[in-house]
Amino acid sequence: MSDKNLDIITIGESLIEFSTNQKLDEAECLHKYYGGDSLVVAVAASRLKSKVGFITCLGNDAFKDYLLKSWENEGLDTSCVSTSDDNNGLYLVSRAPGEAKEFIYYRKKIAPAKVSIDNIKEDYIKSAKVVYASGVTQSLSIQARESVRKAFSIAKENGVMTAYDPNFSNRLTTIETAKEQLDEIMPLIDVLFISDKHDIKYLLEIDSIEKASKILSDSGIHNVVIKSSNNKGYYVTANQNTVFVPYYTTTVVDTTSTGDTFNGAYLHSITKSYTPVEAAKIAAIAAGIQAQGIGAIKSIPYFDEVYNIYKSEA
Description:
Layout: E1 8-11, E2 15-20, E3 31-35, H1 37-46, E4 52-55, E5 57-59, H2 64-73, E6 82-84, E7 89-94, E8 102-106, H3 122-126, E9 130-134, H4 135-139, H5 142-157, E10 161-165, H6 175-185, E11 191-195, H7 196-204, H8 209-218, E12 223-228, E13 233-238, E14 241-246, H9 258-271, H10 276-290, H11 303-313
Parallel strand pairs: 1-4, 1-9, 2-7, 5-6, 9-10, 10-11, 11-12
Antiparallel strand pairs: 2-3, 7-8, 12-13, 13-14
């Protein structure tokens, strides 16, 4: 599938997901699906009727055809997906009732790490309204990091909005590397998604949301969204004004990739001319619904479900 008039392009990894609502050592059956933070962003936006392209490198293993067909069934443009003889990565996730979430990654030497500047086509980037990537994408490899910088540079030179989430996790990279990745891309960011629990605390070393909002906004980033698990909501700063948007629900089953679902729904809304605060309200609904299921993508809601709720609360 190829469509040269895209709303959003995301760059990153895809992983096979095996999920269960039992403890991993007790589960006899795991449900197969797929995930990956930038892919979740892509699917969340696509299910809300945005036109979305996904840039990655796909492993030539037993899951190749399943993944490619699944992405195309989601309506994603895959014209800049390359292939590699490396395997696709995978992860296991468990959310047993009353138990802490279990999460195991297998993502070393995987195909998405082969994403490079060769995947970044200037005309393709210019065809979109927004280009999105994350610190997870940058952490895949040096060449993946270079591909993000190239895509964002092309976007900035051609009036295409850029959006970024550090998505820091010490399971994937070190604080020092994550700081370098953020500093490298910061001058090219238009929309920044950032968490108080991980990113502000460890990467910015700032002790308050208010201070972080001001510093980031003063640095030239047009739109800053701080996700606050402590305060159960989102601080949206645009044009030097900050508005708090609460979670749609605090009743959750699994928060795997809930933040990525928010990002995809938010970017969808921004490209449809909603204000940042309106976009955050729509995205909060999508993320809240997704968090009531298990896994990264299976529970992402579709257009009608999200907008029926949004319109009823407007």
